[in-house]
């Protein structure tokens, strides 16, 4: 408020100077005409002028405050009512500008509402499609499981690989919608870390078997407080990357190790794949980033680790990644200790 008053004072200081100039002229005239009259009237003249200026300044300051409040309300809610209130406080020339600004703001607000509606409709459609596609995927899984003997091993492996790829992409889409939604249906509970890892490995069992992975597990019976579906999604994305980026030579390995220390429970998932270049490491959790290691990464969407990291943030889990080219990648999942 004090700042606004000083601002108004600076705005009208020229009028104060003009008033002082007029007072000095009157004082000079009185002094030249009669010195005794000058001594009696000069203080009254000066105080009267100062009082008039201060009163005018106060009314100008109050008017500016009203205009400022009305303009702020007009910007926040640019409807006809606030526009009419604003028009009463400005000149006719400024009123034309206010009407023009009001029209533009209302058009922008309507365009924003239309865009939000379109985005919501699109998100609902994508989420509905992702749920609907689960039915043919389930049918494909059923047919592959029940007619495995009727297919050659090569055909079966390729069909099963395609099914797993589609299922993984649909899962990414659903979890992306879940992460961006306003309401998130997480169920935090004490869950077995070993059970979650075993289920994730079971999901990729056909691919792991096809590529000849050697799996080394050190998973003691540890429990963490988290959301089961969310944690399973994170582990699935890490395993998917480990399978996708294997080396063309040697036996692929996958190490899952869990332990507990003073920081909390730590799960390490390590592979011996193609690894990541050092300059790519800081960006692996960014949306759409694929890096430049190999042709397989160029075909990737760059969404897996991004979604895993976003899910980890929601679940208050810390992710860290370490990698060397042609040496493999290790992702460390830390579950902090929850104070009771």
Features of this protein?
alpha+beta; Heat Shock Protein 90; two-stranded antiparallel ribbon; 14% strand; elongated
Short description:
The protein is built from twelve helices and seven strands. The protein is of the alpha+beta class and 340 residues long.
Structure write-up:
This protein is an alpha+beta fold and 340 residues long. Among the domains are: 2-76; 189-336, Histidine kinase-like ATPase, C-terminal domain (Heat Shock Protein 90). Helices cover 63% and strands 14% of the residues. It is built from 12 helices and 7 strands. The chain has helices at 2-11, 13-33, 35-76, 80-87, 92-132, 134-146, 153-180, 193-203, 205-210, 228-244, 294-299, 304-314; strands at residues 188-192, 214-218, 223-227, 253-260, 264-271, 318-324, 328-336. The protein has a 5-stranded mixed sheet with strand order 2-4-5-7-6, covered by helices on one side. The chain has a two-stranded antiparallel sheet with strand order 1-3. α4 (80-87) packs antiparallel against α5 and α5 (92-132) packs antiparallel against α7. The protein is elongated, with a radius of gyration of 36 Å. The model has no long low-confidence stretch (mean pLDDT 80).
Topology:
Layout: H1 2-11, H2 13-33, H3 35-76, H4 80-87, H5 92-132, H6 134-146, H7 153-180, E1 188-192, H8 193-203, H9 205-210, E2 214-218, E3 223-227, H10 228-244, E4 253-260, E5 264-271, H11 294-299, H12 304-314, E6 318-324, E7 328-336
Parallel strand pairs: 2-4
Antiparallel strand pairs: 1-3, 4-5, 5-7, 6-7
Helix pairs in contact: 1-3, 2-3, 3-4, 4-5, 5-7, 6-7, 7-12, 8-10, 10-12
């Amino acid at each position: 408020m004090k700042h606004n008053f000083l601002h108004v004072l600076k705005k009208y200081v020229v009028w104060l100077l003009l008033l002082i100039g007029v007072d000095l002229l009157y004082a000079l005239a009185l002094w030249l005409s009669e010195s005794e009259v000058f001594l009696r009237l000069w203080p009254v003249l000066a105080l009267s002028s100062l009082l008039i200026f201060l009163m005018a300044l106060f009314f100008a300051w109050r008017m500016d405050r009203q205009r400022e409040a009305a303009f702020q309300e007009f910007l926040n809610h640019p409807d006809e009512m606030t526009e009419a209130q604003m028009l009463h406080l400005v000149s006719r020339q400024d009123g034309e500008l206010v009407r023009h600004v009001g029209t533009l703001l209302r058009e922008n607000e309507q365009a924003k509402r239309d865009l939000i509606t379109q985005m919501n409709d699109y998100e609902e459609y994508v989420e509905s499609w992702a749920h609907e596609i689960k039915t043919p995927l389930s049918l494909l899984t059923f047919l592959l499981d029940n007619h495995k003997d009727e297919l050659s091993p090569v055909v079966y492996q390729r069909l099963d690989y395609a099914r797993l790829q589609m299922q993984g992409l649909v899962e990414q889409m659903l979890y992306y919608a879940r992460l961006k939604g306003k309401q998130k249906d997480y169920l935090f509970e004490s869950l077995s870390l070993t059970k979650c890892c075993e289920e994730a490995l079971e999901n990729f069992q056909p691919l792991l078997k096809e590529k000849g992975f050697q799996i080394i597990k050190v998973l003691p019976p540890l429990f963490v407080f988290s959301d089961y579906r969310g944690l399973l999604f994170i582990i699935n994305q890490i395993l998917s990357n480990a399978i996708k980026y294997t080396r063309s030579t040697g036996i692929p390995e996958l190490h899952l190790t869990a332990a507990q220390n003073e920081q909390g429970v730590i799960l390490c998932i390590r592979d011996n794949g193609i690894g990541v270049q050092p300059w790519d490491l800081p960006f692996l959790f960014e949306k759409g980033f694929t890096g430049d290691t190999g042709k397989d990464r160029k075909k990737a969407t760059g969404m897996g680790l991004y979604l895993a990291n976003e899910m980890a943030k929601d679940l208050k889990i810390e992710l860290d990644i370490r990698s060397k080219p042609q040496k493999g990648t290790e992702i460390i999942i830390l579950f902090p200790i929850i104070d009771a």
